[in-house]
Automatic annotation (TrEMBL):
It catalyses: AMP(in) + ADP(out) = AMP(out) + ADP(in); adenosine 3',5'-bisphosphate(in) + ADP(out) = adenosine 3',5'-bisphosphate(out) + ADP(in); ADP(in) + ATP(out) = ADP(out) + ATP(in); ADP(out) + CoA(in) = ADP(in) + CoA(out). It is found in: Mitochondrion inner membrane. It is a multi-pass membrane protein. GO terms for cellular component: mitochondrial inner membrane. Belongs to the mitochondrial carrier (TC 2.A.29) family. It comes from Bucco capensis. This is Mitochondrial coenzyme A transporter SLC25A42. The keyword Iron does not apply. PANTHER family: SOLUTE CARRIER FAMILY 25 (PTHR24089).
Length: 327
């Protein structure tokens, strides 16, 4: 009887204690969900702000990439000015709605995937909570860019078509999808996919690698854990300059293949497209056409993108922390 009295409470305590470790799991899951949601929201905003800021330059660059016209700063200015005179101020942002439809999910997926790949690679290489070494840093960026490009590619095709055609040809994004599917086939929505992926690997890899490396060097030499907004813009600009310069010829090939159906060309493969561009326009003037504009547009866009992402992340974390404290 005495044993029964003593064992009762012990048994009760055991039942009460055993579930305690499991009770932390919902909290950890919630934290992970919040982290992913924060990354998605911050990435979406970063992409939207950056691309809208440089949309007129982006449209001008695409128009030069897909034509045999020789590029120069003077010609670029004339094209922008004539577009403004003939089609109005807001025509400079033509195709930006398609860009937003693509860039918001693209940037959200890319930034979120980058955070997740960093975490996975950190666990694999044993760098939990620390900055990755150079090679995993490059791999995380490349994987993030590839993941985002694979999931959003048809939207990039639509945006390129809208940028180089008069507004009478395609009235909206849905119209582009319908006409391409009906007149050229669904496979056309993935034309230029291979050069896109081949270009994204060095572009995203070098962009994220450069930005993360510059932040780490800044922290090591300044003693500050976080760079200031102007410093973030500068680091992002350097990242954009290096990333886009490395992948630019493939970007030109991608645009040519995407817009071939409406511009009277037939580009069947990456190699043949490159050969035709070089034969007709030369190596530098053809495959690097518009690169000088990209050296203006790219660093601005990437700088704004990285800075917006980081600052939005910080703001959201602060908001969540203050909400948690008030509960």
């Amino acid at each position: 009887m005495g044993n029964g009295v003593r064992e009762g409470p012990v048994a009760f305590k055991r039942q009460d204690v055993e579930p305690v470790p499991a009770s932390h799991l919902p909290s950890e899951d919630k934290q992970e969900q919040k982290k992913v949601l924060n990354s998605l929201m911050s990435g979406a905003l970063a992409g939207a702000v950056a691309k809208t800021a440089v949309a007129p330059l982006d449209r001008t660059k695409i128009m030069f990439q897909v034509s045999s016209k020789r590029f120069s700063a003077k010609e670029a200015y004339k094209l922008i000015y004539h577009t403004y005179l003939n089609e109005g101020f807001w025509s400079l942002w033509r195709g930006n709605s398609a860009t937003m439809v693509r860039v918001i999910p693209y940037a959200a997926i890319q930034f979120c995937a980058h955070e997740e790949y960093k975490q996975l690679l950190g666990s694999y290489y044993g760098f939990q909570g620390k900055a990755l070494t150079p090679f995993p840093r490059f791999i995380a960026g490349s994987l993030a860019g590839t993941t985002a490009a694979m999931l959003t590619y048809p939207l990039d095709m639509v945006r390129a078509r809208m940028a180089v055609t008069p507004k009478e040809m395609y009235s909206n994004i849905v119209h582009v999808f319908i006409r391409i599917s009906r007149e050229e086939g669904l496979k056309t929505l993935y034309r230029g996919f291979t050069p896109t992926i081949l270009g994204v690997i060095p572009y995203a890899g070098l962009s994220f690698f450069t930005y993360e490396t510059l932040k780490k060097l800044h922290a090591d030499h300044s003693g500050k854990s976080q760079p200031s907004p102007p410093e973030r813009l500068l680091f992002g600009a350097c990242a954009g300059l290096i990333g886009q310069s490395a992948s630019y010829p493939l970007d030109v090939v991608r645009r040519r293949m995407q817009t071939a159906g409406v511009l009277g060309h037939t580009y069947s493969s990456i190699i043949l497209t490159m050969q035709e561009i070089i034969r007709e326009e030369g190596l530098i003037r053809g495959l690097y056409k518009g690169l000088s504009m990209n050296w203006v547009k790219g660093p601005i866009a990437v700088g704004i993108s990285f800075t917006t992402f980081d600052l939005t992340q910080i703001l959201l974390r602060k908001l969540q922390h203050s909400m948690d404290r008030s509960r």
